[in-house]
Amino acid sequence: MSEKVTEALAAVEAGAEELDMVLNYNKLKEKDYSYVYTDIATVRSCAPHPVILKVILETSQLSTFEIVAACKIAQSAHADFVKTSTGFNGPGASIDNVRLMKATVGDTMKVKASGGVKTAQDCISMLEAGAERIGTSSGVWIMKDAKRLAEGVVHEGTQEQPDSHKSQSERASSRQAY
After folding, report:
1. pTM for this entry
2. Is 54 a catalytic residue?
3. How confident is the model at residue 155 (pLDDT cuts 50, 70, 90)?
4. Per-residue DSSP letters for the chain?
5. Are 154 and 130 in contact (CB under 8 A)?
6. pLDDT single digits (tens) 52-61
7. Among the options 4, 20, 27, 32, which is catalytic?
């Protein structure tokens, strides 16, 4: 029994509602598609629906052709998501790769952009490219950034006027706090 299968069974038994597995991209690069499919399908059989299965592709390690092949294999093995990366191997998500993944899986699967997503604009761009979810270790910063962007929109579309509603003395005291 593979380590992935052992871990999937243990996670499901412990009540996991979602599992992430890393695609064996070395086997994919060797064009051993049968191995890759069996690896994903075996984990899927250990974690049947309604458990959500996300397959991490490590897109920074793959060519365009390999990303398409990986998406199609994950789709055939009945995974629920394809995910760009772990965030530990290369630059992570790119808008082009998210678009490619979404175009490949269409509405049959979802896409998760993960790795390198650090700002509110990064999130917006990934969502516009087709990501359904975002994976990031910068959640607090992104929310602060999103709030700043929203305040800029509320205040006549500029980011430089968020305190224009304050009195002159309030603006002066807030500048001194910096």
Report:
1. 0.83
2. no
3. very low
4. --HHHHHHHHHHHTT-SEEEEE--HHHHHTT-HHHHHHHHHHHHHHS-TTSEEEEE--GGGS-HHHHHHHHHHHHHTT-SEEES--SSSSS---HHHHHHHHHHHTTSSEEEEESS--SHHHHHHHHHHT-SEEE-S-HHHHHHHHHHHHHHHHTTT-SS-TTTTS-HHHHHHHHHT-
5. no
6. 999 999 999 9
7. 20
Residue type, 66: E
Name the residue among 140, 165, 139 with its Cα closest to residue 151: 165
- Other CB atoms closer than 10 Å to residue 112's CB: what's the count? 23
Residue 31 designated active-site: no
By C-alpha distance, which of 102, 103, 98, 128 is closest to 114? 98
**Residue tagged active-site, from 54, 110, 112, 122:** 112
Is 29 among the residues known to form the active site? no
Among residues 39, 54, 83, 102, which one is catalytic?
83
